[in-house]
Amino acid sequence: MKFLRLLILLVFSQVSAQQGGMWIPSLLKGMNESEMKKLGMKISAEDIYSVNKSSLKDAVPQFDGGCTAEVISDKGLILTNHHCGFDNIQSHSTVENDYLTNGFWAYKMEEELPNKDLYVTFIIRIEDVTTKVLEGTGTLATEAEKQKKIQENISFLNKTLPKEAWQENNIRTFYDGNQYLLFVIENYKDVRLVGAPPSSIGKFGSDTDNWVWPRHTGDFSLFRIYADKNNRPAEYSKDNVPYKPKHFFPISINGIKENDFTMVMGYPGRTQEYLPAIAVDQIVNTLNPVKIEVRDAALKVQDGFMRKDNAIKIQYASKYAAVANYWKKWIGETKGLKKSNAISVKQKFEASFQEKVILAGKQAEYGNIISDFEKNYSEIKDFALARDLFSEVVLRNSELLQNSYRLYQLEQILKTKGEQAFTDRKNNLSNGIVDFYKDYNAMVDKNVFEQLIAIYAKRLPSQFLPNELNNLNASQLTNDIYTNTKLTKLEDFRSLLEGDSKTVIEKINADKGYQILKAMADAYTKNVLPKYDELNLKNIATQRTYMKAILELFPNDRIFPDANSTLRVTYGKVKGYKPNDAITYDPFTYLDGVMEKYVPGDYEFDVPKKLIDLYNSKDYGVYASKGKIPVAFIATNHTTGGNSGSPALDAKGNLIGLNFDRVWEGTMSDIYYSPEICRNIMVDIRYVLFIIDKFAGADNLIKEMKIIAPKKKM
């Protein structure tokens, strides 16, 4: 097909070595491999991805569906970020046995801790199935019909394409629906906690330092994959044995210097590099500001309580981190898009695009794309704003409204699917809600609710506002709800679910908390969602055509597919940067910087006594560089959320660090990548080993690893 011919053209284009892009590992041969070698890579594309022999991809599983990990021993030991393992560390923590504060280390395998529902996913092979997925869509008139047929085809192919019994098929779309790839995967579901530094190391700098450079965070944790006796995926069992990987990463402590080649492999979540200018304008000036406002209000309330009460700190640590992460990201993203003039750059590209369309005689096919975008995004603006507000206030940041929405869904199931489906969902909800209340504090939630409901009533376009929120007195409404609701206590919540469907529906509809949610949800599902979905389908169709046109009209440009949580390779160089006038950042940080930031007893910048003692005695072992302990470094690798925990590799494919963040000024790389300021942040592997060895004394783990040390001079 034409698209595949275009891909071949792209692969074999002769261009100078560049940086940026998230590339499919099975398609690295050609242009990418040549670029990587020019940047300094010493291995081949076949070494990175191979179906027939072990390769680097076999040591890079997705971690728990949203992060990345790397295998670092022949006994299934894996390394990922502390913040990726945070939920699991928290689940084992209590006030009496606080692994978040004190850390956790298993000095024997039998001490390793099982984790409910934690899994890792390995990619076995990747195949192009575009023709099969698009079969039967060419004659369909509407976008909705096309999408329905595509999903039917994907569902059928996932079930029928060849795989082993313990494997799964997963088909994903690329280039905005112009290409579809099959990923044959294996999910390992027995993953046990092995080691985690205290949060004062693993989360050092916490929210103040999040998304910024210079960084001094030891953001790592260790887990182990277990398998059945045949080395295949299995549910947790005491009879399971450590997983034997096809490949694991040797670890280099030889050190790195500026301009060294680096490669990152992982599962980047979502990027939108090919959005039109009007879409970016909407993100910068409409959508991001309101999302930032909501999260800012929620975070200030939670932070105030967490600083005063350690029990609340444990309850809300993970939730707070999750909310704060993208709050700060959106701030940096907006700043970066403005600083880089991304909207103007995209407008210039669109002008060039129009010229290409005319020169190619493609006006009939592509001539209206930009004007269609202008029309569609103008129409969707208020609906998109309402959608983001509902998501941020109801689904993410107000716990009472979250819980109420679960009951709302239960009521809708009764209406649409009947009694049996209602009963099944009711029982699942009653049994599954325990974990929610374990980490819930009604006073915290009440104060968050009061702030957010006021923002909702103020920022929601007036045509979508339910009557119940007109002329809102936020304080009065909040007190009324939290005094009378049954949604703030586990036993009361469960009491609402007792009885037959008629009784349950009557009880939940009499609850003050549910009443306000229902008014908000009814208004949203009736007045916002249908029209948003209609307009969004138009944008999806236009974006697909736009992407097809870009590939066709710019055959010599480097055009990588947007991230979609599938395995990707990105490459670049260790590099400092200049974020602002008169400011230049070096690419490396050291333990000295930890001590410079140290504030005794502080929530974010406290330092464990043992680490201070090691620093003062300079007891660094083999991990020092010129008498100092490296902590973190930055490079030009193009990463995003989902790359957390990704292996950072040297020119020979050895592990030199693990990715955990991006610099604040470059977070706009999800929308517009600029090699001038976009930098990914990685923990130096020497700091990781230093903490495991010297701080934790976990020599058992060090002995598992294959460590490449500098050759001693004779």
Description:
- By secondary structure, the chain is α+β, with helices and mostly antiparallel strands.
- It is 47% helix and 15% strand.
- The protein has three domains: 350 residues, Beta Barrel (Thrombin, subunit H); 125 residues, no CATH class; 130 residues, no CATH class.
- It contains 27 helices and 23 strands.
- Strands 3, 4, 5, 6, 10, 11 and 12 form a seven-stranded antiparallel beta sheet that branches.
Task: Outline the secondary-structure elements.
Elements: H1 2-11, H2 31-38, H3 45-48, E1 62-63, E2 67-68, E3 70-71, E4 77-80, H4 82-91, H5 99-102, E5 104-105, E6 113-114, E7 120-128, H6 130-134, H7 143-160, E8 168-174, E9 179-188, E10 190-196, H8 199-202, H9 206-209, E11 221-227, E12 241-242, E13 251-252, E14 261-266, H10 277-308, H11 310-339, H12 342-359, H13 363-366, H14 369-397, H15 399-417, H16 419-432, H17 434-438, H18 442-459, H19 474-484, H20 490-496, H21 501-509, H22 512-527, H23 529-553, E15 568-573, E16 577-580, E17 583-585, E18 588-590, H24 591-597, H25 609-617, E19 630-635, E20 647-649, E21 655-662, E22 680-684, H26 685-695, H27 699-704, E23 707-708
Parallel strand pairs: 13-23
Antiparallel strand pairs: 1-2, 1-7, 3-4, 4-11, 5-10, 6-10, 7-9, 8-9, 10-11, 11-12, 14-15, 14-20, 16-17, 18-19, 19-22, 20-21, 21-22
Helix pairs in contact: 4-11, 10-11, 10-12, 10-14, 10-18, 14-15, 14-18, 14-22, 14-23, 15-16, 15-22, 18-19
